[in-house]
Amino acid sequence: MDGSSSSLNEVNVSSGLLIQNRGQLLFNGLGKFRLNGTAAIENYGLTELASGGDLYLDGGDFDNKSSGTLRFSGNGGNLYHLYNNSPAWCYNYGAIEKTSGTGTNTFALPVLSSGPITVATGTLQFQDYFESTTDGSLRGSGTIDLPDPTNFVNEGDCAPGMSTGQLTLAGDFTSSPSSVLELDLNGYTPLTEYDRLAITGDATLEGTMSINLGFAPQQNDTFTVVTTTGTLTTNLPATVSANYNGSYDFQVLASSHQLDLVVTAVPLPVELVSFTGKALPDRTVLLEWQTASEFNASHFVVERSADGGTSFEELGQVRARGGTVPTDYSFLDKQPFNGVNYYRLREVDFDGTESHSPVVAVPVGAAPDVAVFPNPAIRHERIRFSEGPDIRQVAIIATDGQVVRQGIPENRSFRLGDLPAGHYVVRLVAEKEVIHLPLVIF
After folding, report:
1. Pick from 135, 157, 169, 338: CA 20 to 30 A from residue 195's CA?
2. Looking at residue 161, what is its pLDDT?
3. Chain mean pLDDT for the chain
4. 197 and 297 both lie in a single domain
5. DSSP string covering 119-185
6. How many domains does the chain have?
7. Which of 265, 280, 309 is the last residue of a domain?
8. CB of 284 within 8 A of CB of 337?
9. Are 347 and 327 part of one and the same domain?
10. According to the model, what pLDDT value does residue 322 have?
11. In a 10 Å sphere around its CB, with 0-12 CB exposed, 13-18 middle and 19+ buried, how is residue 438 labelled?
Protein backbone atom coordinates (compact mmCIF):
# COMPACT_ATOMS: atom_id res chain seq x y z
CA MET A 1 0.00 0.00 0.00
CA ASP A 2 1.80 3.12 -1.24
CA GLY A 3 0.46 6.62 -0.90
CA SER A 4 -0.31 9.31 1.60
CA SER A 5 -3.18 7.78 3.57
CA SER A 6 -5.97 5.21 3.70
CA SER A 7 -9.02 5.37 5.98
CA LEU A 8 -10.82 2.11 6.73
CA ASN A 9 -13.80 1.09 8.91
CA GLU A 10 -14.28 -2.70 8.85
CA VAL A 11 -12.33 -4.92 6.48
CA ASN A 12 -11.70 -8.66 6.30
CA VAL A 13 -8.50 -9.68 4.54
CA SER A 14 -8.06 -13.14 3.08
CA SER A 15 -5.37 -15.51 4.27
CA GLY A 16 -1.98 -15.29 2.61
CA LEU A 17 -2.14 -11.60 1.73
CA LEU A 18 0.89 -9.45 2.70
CA ILE A 19 0.15 -5.77 3.19
CA GLN A 20 3.18 -3.50 2.89
CA ASN A 21 2.44 -0.02 4.19
CA ARG A 22 4.85 2.65 3.03
CA GLY A 23 2.53 5.57 3.59
CA GLN A 24 -0.13 6.09 6.26
CA LEU A 25 -2.57 3.40 7.35
CA LEU A 26 -5.32 4.76 9.61
CA PHE A 27 -7.86 2.74 11.64
CA ASN A 28 -10.45 5.04 13.20
CA GLY A 29 -13.93 5.21 14.65
CA LEU A 30 -15.23 1.76 15.52
CA GLY A 31 -13.48 0.21 12.55
CA LYS A 32 -12.13 -3.33 12.66
CA PHE A 33 -9.43 -4.66 10.37
CA ARG A 34 -9.25 -8.46 10.37
CA LEU A 35 -6.34 -10.32 8.85
CA ASN A 36 -7.42 -13.94 8.50
CA GLY A 37 -5.16 -16.95 8.27
CA THR A 38 -1.58 -15.97 7.48
CA ALA A 39 -2.36 -12.47 6.23
CA ALA A 40 0.22 -10.04 7.66
CA ILE A 41 1.34 -6.41 7.68
CA GLU A 42 4.80 -5.01 7.08
CA ASN A 43 4.82 -1.41 8.25
CA TYR A 44 7.44 0.92 6.75
CA GLY A 45 5.44 4.11 7.28
CA LEU A 46 2.80 5.14 9.82
CA THR A 47 0.09 2.81 11.07
CA GLU A 48 -2.29 4.63 13.40
CA LEU A 49 -5.07 3.20 15.57
CA ALA A 50 -7.25 6.15 16.44
CA SER A 51 -10.40 6.46 18.56
CA GLY A 52 -11.38 2.84 18.74
CA GLY A 53 -9.94 1.41 15.55
CA ASP A 54 -8.89 -2.21 16.14
CA LEU A 55 -6.54 -4.54 14.31
CA TYR A 56 -7.16 -8.30 14.48
CA LEU A 57 -4.47 -10.80 13.50
CA ASP A 58 -4.94 -14.55 13.03
CA GLY A 59 -1.74 -16.35 12.10
CA GLY A 60 0.12 -13.55 10.41
CA ASP A 61 2.29 -10.94 12.15
CA PHE A 62 2.48 -7.18 12.42
CA ASP A 63 6.07 -6.39 11.51
CA ASN A 64 6.97 -2.80 12.36
CA LYS A 65 10.14 -2.11 10.40
CA SER A 66 12.95 0.24 11.52
CA SER A 67 11.41 3.09 9.50
CA GLY A 68 7.90 2.36 10.76
CA THR A 69 5.77 3.86 13.51
CA LEU A 70 2.81 2.16 15.18
CA ARG A 71 0.79 4.92 16.82
CA PHE A 72 -2.13 4.83 19.23
CA SER A 73 -4.04 8.11 19.35
CA GLY A 74 -7.24 8.78 21.23
CA ASN A 75 -9.07 6.35 23.50
CA GLY A 76 -9.43 2.78 22.31
CA GLY A 77 -7.57 1.17 19.44
CA ASN A 78 -6.11 -2.29 20.11
CA LEU A 79 -4.20 -5.16 18.56
CA TYR A 80 -5.89 -8.55 18.99
CA HIS A 81 -5.12 -12.15 18.11
CA LEU A 82 -8.02 -14.19 16.71
CA TYR A 83 -6.51 -17.46 17.96
CA ASN A 84 -7.87 -19.43 15.01
CA ASN A 85 -4.33 -20.38 13.97
CA SER A 86 -0.82 -20.21 15.49
CA PRO A 87 -0.17 -17.10 17.59
CA ALA A 88 0.31 -13.85 15.74
CA TRP A 89 3.10 -11.58 16.93
CA CYS A 90 3.89 -7.90 16.87
CA TYR A 91 7.56 -7.31 16.05
CA ASN A 92 8.81 -3.80 16.66
CA TYR A 93 12.05 -2.60 15.09
CA GLY A 94 10.87 0.97 14.68
CA ALA A 95 8.76 2.97 17.16
CA ILE A 96 5.58 2.29 19.08
CA GLU A 97 3.93 5.36 20.58
CA LYS A 98 0.78 6.41 22.39
CA THR A 99 0.43 10.11 21.75
CA SER A 100 -3.03 11.07 23.06
CA GLY A 101 -6.06 9.84 24.95
CA THR A 102 -6.38 9.12 28.65
CA GLY A 103 -7.82 5.65 28.10
CA THR A 104 -6.18 2.26 27.57
CA ASN A 105 -4.82 0.76 24.37
CA THR A 106 -4.11 -2.96 24.45
CA PHE A 107 -1.74 -5.46 22.90
CA ALA A 108 -3.66 -8.75 23.25
CA LEU A 109 -0.95 -10.69 21.45
CA PRO A 110 2.78 -11.37 22.03
CA VAL A 111 5.14 -8.42 21.48
CA LEU A 112 8.89 -8.50 20.79
CA SER A 113 10.27 -4.97 20.78
CA SER A 114 13.72 -3.85 19.62
CA GLY A 115 12.82 -0.18 19.45
CA PRO A 116 11.41 2.58 21.67
CA ILE A 117 7.92 2.30 23.17
CA THR A 118 6.78 5.75 24.24
CA VAL A 119 3.59 6.46 26.21
CA ALA A 120 2.95 10.20 26.48
CA THR A 121 -0.44 9.85 28.17
CA GLY A 122 -2.98 7.23 29.18
CA THR A 123 -2.14 3.52 29.39
CA LEU A 124 -0.59 1.04 27.02
CA GLN A 125 -1.41 -2.48 28.16
CA PHE A 126 0.42 -5.73 27.36
CA GLN A 127 -1.79 -8.75 28.08
CA ASP A 128 0.36 -11.47 26.49
CA TYR A 129 4.09 -12.16 26.32
CA PHE A 130 6.17 -8.97 26.19
CA GLU A 131 9.92 -8.71 25.65
CA SER A 132 12.00 -5.55 25.32
CA THR A 133 15.42 -6.46 23.91
CA THR A 134 18.76 -4.73 24.44
CA ASP A 135 17.83 -2.35 21.59
CA GLY A 136 14.42 -1.59 23.10
CA SER A 137 13.33 1.03 25.61
CA LEU A 138 10.30 2.07 27.66
CA ARG A 139 9.67 5.82 27.69
CA GLY A 140 7.18 8.55 28.44
CA SER A 141 4.95 10.09 31.08
CA GLY A 142 2.00 7.71 30.89
CA THR A 143 1.43 4.17 32.16
CA ILE A 144 2.71 0.88 30.76
CA ASP A 145 0.67 -2.05 32.08
CA LEU A 146 3.00 -5.04 32.22
CA PRO A 147 1.99 -8.70 31.92
CA ASP A 148 2.57 -11.37 34.54
CA PRO A 149 6.31 -11.60 35.40
CA THR A 150 6.53 -15.03 33.76
CA ASN A 151 5.55 -13.37 30.47
CA PHE A 152 7.82 -10.32 30.74
CA VAL A 153 11.49 -10.05 29.75
CA ASN A 154 13.26 -6.70 29.87
CA GLU A 155 16.81 -6.21 28.64
CA GLY A 156 16.33 -2.69 27.32
CA ASP A 157 16.50 0.82 28.73
CA CYS A 158 13.97 2.84 30.68
CA ALA A 159 13.57 6.60 30.33
CA PRO A 160 10.79 8.25 32.39
CA GLY A 161 9.31 11.55 31.27
CA MET A 162 8.63 13.45 28.10
CA SER A 163 11.63 15.69 28.71
CA THR A 164 10.72 15.45 32.41
CA GLY A 165 7.85 13.57 34.01
CA GLN A 166 6.78 10.30 35.58
CA LEU A 167 6.54 6.97 33.84
CA THR A 168 4.34 4.47 35.67
CA LEU A 169 4.95 0.75 35.26
CA ALA A 170 1.93 -1.22 36.44
CA GLY A 171 3.11 -4.64 37.59
CA ASP A 172 6.34 -6.25 38.69
CA PHE A 173 9.35 -4.90 36.85
CA THR A 174 12.82 -6.32 36.34
CA SER A 175 15.71 -4.80 34.42
CA SER A 176 18.87 -6.60 33.36
CA PRO A 177 22.63 -5.92 33.57
CA SER A 178 22.45 -4.44 30.06
CA SER A 179 19.69 -1.97 30.97
CA VAL A 180 20.17 1.77 31.40
CA LEU A 181 17.91 3.96 33.54
CA GLU A 182 17.93 7.39 31.86
CA LEU A 183 16.96 10.42 33.96
CA ASP A 184 16.66 14.17 33.38
CA LEU A 185 17.41 16.42 36.37
CA ASN A 186 16.56 20.06 35.63
CA GLY A 187 15.46 21.29 39.07
CA TYR A 188 14.09 20.24 42.45
CA THR A 189 10.41 19.57 41.66
CA PRO A 190 9.65 15.93 40.82
CA LEU A 191 7.71 15.17 37.62
CA THR A 192 7.97 18.73 36.28
CA GLU A 193 11.69 19.39 36.81
CA TYR A 194 13.12 15.92 37.25
CA ASP A 195 12.09 12.42 36.20
CA ARG A 196 10.62 9.66 38.31
CA LEU A 197 9.89 5.99 37.62
CA ALA A 198 6.85 4.78 39.58
CA ILE A 199 6.39 1.01 39.82
CA THR A 200 3.15 -0.43 41.20
CA GLY A 201 4.59 -3.77 42.20
CA ASP A 202 7.93 -5.34 43.07
CA ALA A 203 11.04 -4.10 41.28
CA THR A 204 14.51 -5.47 40.62
CA LEU A 205 16.81 -2.87 39.09
CA GLU A 206 20.12 -3.81 37.50
CA GLY A 207 22.41 -2.25 34.94
CA THR A 208 23.60 1.35 34.89
CA MET A 209 22.21 4.88 35.18
CA SER A 210 22.57 7.89 32.90
CA ILE A 211 21.81 11.41 34.16
CA ASN A 212 21.17 14.37 31.89
CA LEU A 213 21.83 17.30 34.23
CA GLY A 214 20.31 20.67 33.32
CA PHE A 215 21.07 22.79 36.39
CA ALA A 216 23.56 23.13 39.27
CA PRO A 217 22.45 21.21 42.38
CA GLN A 218 24.12 21.69 45.76
CA GLN A 219 25.98 19.31 48.02
CA ASN A 220 23.67 16.78 49.75
CA ASP A 221 20.65 17.57 47.55
CA THR A 222 18.44 14.48 47.26
CA PHE A 223 16.25 13.37 44.34
CA THR A 224 13.79 10.47 44.64
CA VAL A 225 13.86 8.98 41.15
CA VAL A 226 12.22 5.54 41.67
CA THR A 227 9.27 4.54 43.86
CA THR A 228 7.63 1.14 44.30
CA THR A 229 4.52 -0.10 46.05
CA GLY A 230 6.24 -3.45 46.56
CA THR A 231 9.78 -4.35 47.49
CA LEU A 232 12.79 -2.82 45.74
CA THR A 233 15.96 -4.79 45.02
CA THR A 234 18.91 -3.15 43.28
CA ASN A 235 22.22 -4.07 41.76
CA LEU A 236 23.24 -0.65 40.49
CA PRO A 237 26.52 1.28 40.72
CA ALA A 238 27.13 2.92 44.10
CA THR A 239 27.79 6.27 42.45
CA VAL A 240 26.96 7.90 39.12
CA SER A 241 28.37 11.08 37.60
CA ALA A 242 26.87 13.82 35.45
CA ASN A 243 28.13 17.04 33.91
CA TYR A 244 26.79 20.58 34.00
CA ASN A 245 29.65 23.07 33.58
CA GLY A 246 31.68 20.59 35.60
CA SER A 247 31.37 17.11 37.03
CA TYR A 248 28.88 16.12 39.76
CA ASP A 249 28.84 12.84 41.69
CA PHE A 250 25.62 11.24 42.97
CA GLN A 251 25.38 8.46 45.54
CA VAL A 252 22.77 5.84 44.62
CA LEU A 253 20.79 5.01 47.78
CA ALA A 254 18.10 2.32 47.76
CA SER A 255 15.58 1.65 50.52
CA SER A 256 12.75 -0.86 50.58
CA HIS A 257 10.40 1.30 48.48
CA GLN A 258 12.42 4.02 46.75
CA LEU A 259 15.68 4.93 45.05
CA ASP A 260 17.36 8.26 45.80
CA LEU A 261 20.22 10.16 44.18
CA VAL A 262 22.24 12.24 46.67
CA VAL A 263 24.75 14.84 45.50
CA THR A 264 28.12 13.99 47.05
CA ALA A 265 30.53 16.08 44.97
CA VAL A 266 30.10 19.34 43.07
CA PRO A 267 32.57 21.16 40.81
CA LEU A 268 35.07 23.44 42.47
CA PRO A 269 34.06 27.03 41.71
CA VAL A 270 37.62 27.70 40.55
CA GLU A 271 40.33 25.12 40.00
CA LEU A 272 43.48 27.19 40.47
CA VAL A 273 46.52 25.74 38.69
CA SER A 274 49.11 28.36 39.64
CA PHE A 275 49.52 31.77 41.28
CA THR A 276 52.85 33.58 41.04
CA GLY A 277 54.30 37.04 41.52
CA LYS A 278 57.53 38.73 40.48
CA ALA A 279 59.10 42.17 40.91
CA LEU A 280 59.82 44.04 37.69
CA PRO A 281 62.75 46.43 37.08
CA ASP A 282 60.45 49.46 37.37
CA ARG A 283 59.59 48.41 40.98
CA THR A 284 56.13 47.13 40.10
CA VAL A 285 54.90 43.60 40.84
CA LEU A 286 53.33 41.42 38.17
CA LEU A 287 50.87 38.81 39.49
CA GLU A 288 49.85 35.94 37.21
CA TRP A 289 47.51 33.03 37.75
CA GLN A 290 45.94 30.25 35.71
CA THR A 291 42.70 28.34 36.26
CA ALA A 292 41.84 24.92 34.83
CA SER A 293 38.08 25.50 35.13
CA GLU A 294 35.67 28.06 36.56
CA PHE A 295 32.16 27.22 37.65
CA ASN A 296 29.79 29.90 38.94
CA ALA A 297 32.75 32.25 39.45
CA SER A 298 32.05 35.99 39.33
CA HIS A 299 35.41 37.70 39.88
CA PHE A 300 38.80 37.65 41.60
CA VAL A 301 39.80 40.19 44.25
CA VAL A 302 43.56 40.80 44.40
CA GLU A 303 44.70 41.44 47.99
CA ARG A 304 48.04 42.55 49.48
CA SER A 305 49.59 42.42 52.94
CA ALA A 306 52.68 44.11 54.33
CA ASP A 307 52.70 42.35 57.72
CA GLY A 308 53.41 38.79 56.67
CA GLY A 309 49.84 37.88 55.77
CA THR A 310 48.16 38.87 59.05
CA SER A 311 45.92 41.47 57.42
CA PHE A 312 45.15 42.16 53.75
CA GLU A 313 43.87 45.11 51.75
CA GLU A 314 42.10 45.05 48.39
CA LEU A 315 44.11 46.21 45.38
CA GLY A 316 41.63 45.58 42.59
CA GLN A 317 39.28 43.14 40.88
CA VAL A 318 39.48 40.97 37.77
CA ARG A 319 36.32 39.56 36.20
CA ALA A 320 36.21 35.74 35.86
CA ARG A 321 35.72 34.52 32.30
CA GLY A 322 34.09 31.18 33.16
CA GLY A 323 34.40 27.93 31.24
CA THR A 324 36.13 24.58 31.52
CA VAL A 325 39.35 25.33 29.62
CA PRO A 326 42.64 26.70 31.03
CA THR A 327 42.45 30.49 31.43
CA ASP A 328 45.31 32.92 32.19
CA TYR A 329 45.01 36.16 34.20
CA SER A 330 47.38 38.92 35.28
CA PHE A 331 47.34 41.96 37.55
CA LEU A 332 49.98 44.71 37.98
CA ASP A 333 50.64 46.23 41.41
CA LYS A 334 52.01 49.64 40.48
CA GLN A 335 52.83 50.78 44.02
CA PRO A 336 54.09 47.87 46.11
CA PHE A 337 55.59 48.32 49.55
CA ASN A 338 59.35 48.53 49.98
CA GLY A 339 60.29 45.11 51.31
CA VAL A 340 58.37 41.86 51.11
CA ASN A 341 54.82 42.12 49.75
CA TYR A 342 52.35 39.28 50.31
CA TYR A 343 49.57 38.65 47.81
CA ARG A 344 46.55 36.39 47.64
CA LEU A 345 43.43 36.00 45.51
CA ARG A 346 39.92 36.08 46.88
CA GLU A 347 37.62 34.22 44.46
CA VAL A 348 33.97 35.36 44.64
CA ASP A 349 31.09 33.26 43.25
CA PHE A 350 27.85 34.62 41.86
CA ASP A 351 26.07 33.45 45.02
CA GLY A 352 28.51 35.38 47.23
CA THR A 353 30.59 32.40 48.35
CA GLU A 354 34.29 33.23 48.74
CA SER A 355 37.53 31.28 48.87
CA HIS A 356 41.21 32.25 49.09
CA SER A 357 44.30 31.21 47.21
CA PRO A 358 47.66 30.45 48.83
CA VAL A 359 49.78 33.50 49.66
CA VAL A 360 52.78 34.43 47.52
CA ALA A 361 55.64 36.61 48.81
CA VAL A 362 57.41 39.08 46.51
CA PRO A 363 60.39 41.13 47.79
CA VAL A 364 60.64 44.64 46.36
CA GLY A 365 63.44 47.20 46.72
CA ALA A 366 66.57 46.87 48.83
CA ALA A 367 67.43 43.58 50.46
CA PRO A 368 66.51 43.26 54.13
CA ASP A 369 69.15 43.85 56.80
CA VAL A 370 69.07 40.21 57.89
CA ALA A 371 68.79 36.79 56.21
CA VAL A 372 67.49 33.42 57.41
CA PHE A 373 69.41 30.18 56.82
CA PRO A 374 69.35 27.35 55.99
CA ASN A 375 66.51 28.02 53.56
CA PRO A 376 64.98 25.56 52.72
CA ALA A 377 65.10 24.35 56.28
CA ILE A 378 64.62 20.90 57.81
CA ARG A 379 61.76 20.06 60.19
CA HIS A 380 62.65 19.96 63.91
CA GLU A 381 65.94 21.80 63.25
CA ARG A 382 66.90 25.40 63.98
CA ILE A 383 66.97 28.32 61.61
CA ARG A 384 69.59 30.99 62.10
CA PHE A 385 69.75 34.69 61.38
CA SER A 386 72.67 36.58 59.84
CA GLU A 387 74.31 39.51 61.53
CA GLY A 388 72.14 42.59 61.68
CA PRO A 389 69.67 44.33 63.99
CA ASP A 390 68.91 42.91 67.41
CA ILE A 391 65.96 40.48 67.00
CA ARG A 392 63.59 40.48 69.94
CA GLN A 393 60.79 38.19 68.71
CA VAL A 394 60.28 35.55 65.99
CA ALA A 395 56.97 34.37 64.50
CA ILE A 396 56.38 31.71 61.84
CA ILE A 397 53.30 32.50 59.71
CA ALA A 398 51.49 29.98 57.46
CA THR A 399 50.11 30.84 54.03
CA ASP A 400 46.65 31.39 55.51
CA GLY A 401 48.01 34.20 57.71
CA GLN A 402 47.92 32.22 60.95
CA VAL A 403 50.86 32.40 63.36
CA VAL A 404 51.82 28.75 63.86
CA ARG A 405 54.90 29.22 66.07
CA GLN A 406 56.46 32.16 67.90
CA GLY A 407 58.97 32.90 70.62
CA ILE A 408 62.25 34.58 71.64
CA PRO A 409 65.35 33.74 69.59
CA GLU A 410 68.34 32.13 71.27
CA ASN A 411 71.77 33.27 70.04
CA ARG A 412 70.22 34.47 66.75
CA SER A 413 68.53 31.09 66.13
CA PHE A 414 65.03 29.68 66.48
CA ARG A 415 63.79 26.06 66.68
CA LEU A 416 61.14 25.12 64.12
CA GLY A 417 59.58 22.30 66.10
CA ASP A 418 57.24 19.91 64.31
CA LEU A 419 55.90 22.30 61.66
CA PRO A 420 54.82 20.42 58.52
CA ALA A 421 56.62 20.89 55.22
CA GLY A 422 55.49 23.88 53.20
CA HIS A 423 55.92 27.62 52.55
CA TYR A 424 55.98 30.08 55.45
CA VAL A 425 56.88 33.67 56.34
CA VAL A 426 59.28 34.46 59.16
CA ARG A 427 58.40 37.69 60.96
CA LEU A 428 61.30 39.21 62.88
CA VAL A 429 60.58 42.04 65.33
CA ALA A 430 63.64 44.24 65.85
CA GLU A 431 64.03 47.45 67.84
CA LYS A 432 63.13 49.80 65.02
CA GLU A 433 61.61 47.61 62.31
CA VAL A 434 59.63 44.51 61.47
CA ILE A 435 61.22 42.24 58.86
CA HIS A 436 59.42 39.55 56.86
CA LEU A 437 61.36 36.78 55.14
CA PRO A 438 60.13 33.81 53.09
CA LEU A 439 60.92 30.33 54.41
CA VAL A 440 60.52 26.84 52.99
CA ILE A 441 60.45 23.77 55.26
CA PHE A 442 60.87 20.26 53.93
Report:
1. 135
2. 93
3. 89
4. no
5. E-SSEEEE-S-EEE-TT-EEEESSEEE---GGGEEE-SEEEEBBSB-EEEEES-EE--TT-EEEEEE
6. 3
7. 265
8. no
9. yes
10. 80
11. middle
